[in-house]
Write a structure and sequence with these properties.
Layout: H1 2-19, E1 24-25, H2 43-53, H3 56-76, H4 84-98, E2 103-109, E3 112-119, H5 122-133, E4 140-147
Parallel strand pairs: 3-4
Antiparallel strand pairs: 1-2, 2-3
Length: 156
């Protein structure tokens, strides 16, 4: 039984490490790294992002992530060091829930969070730092995102 428990735990840790090794993205068309700011989206892309972010499945995922983090914080007393992948994932979830039509990429290292990509309005851009700093463990926020109003779709 001890060997099976060890095997199961190590498998879970390995899978979570692999799954969390990439930057957290709020949409499929968000930049691949925080070194880029992202391309200007079309109105269709913005609508698709918003539909995905507000879908029942996505909201259930966000709620599940929040519950898991709360349970983890309750077990550790909330004072444990936060993993970079956990910070970036949690900031991404917060931004996705509050800026559903943005195309943002989030990375974190030792409490320093970098957010890049595009949002539709200056108001959304101004919210990013405030929302990110609400996450426990975030020490600083560097915003490399820009406002890029969606362009109309080209008719073919």
């Amino acid at each position: 039984m001890k060997k099976i428990s060890t095997l199961v735990l190590s498998s879970i840790l390995l899978m979570s490490t692999i799954a969390c090794s990439e930057n957290a993205k709020t949409s499929m068309n968000a930049p691949d790294s925080t070194e880029k700011t992202g391309a200007i989206s079309t109105k269709k892309t913005v609508q698709d992002n918003q539909n995905d972010a507000t879908s029942k499945v996505r909201q259930d995922q966000l709620d599940s992530d929040i519950r898991a983090r709360e349970q983890r914080n309750n077990l550790t007393g909330g004072d444990a060091d936060r993993a970079n992948s956990d910070l970036s994932s949690e900031v991404r979830s917060k931004l996705e829930a509050n800026i559903p039509n943005g195309s943002l990429t989030v990375s974190a290292k030792d409490g320093a969070v970098v957010v890049s990509g595009t949002v539709q309005t200056q108001n959304q851009l101004d919210k990013i730092e405030f929302l990110a700093k609400q996450i426990k463990g975030v020490k600083s926020v560097n915003i490399a995102a820009k406002v890029a109003i969606a362009v109309p779709d080209k008719k073919q």
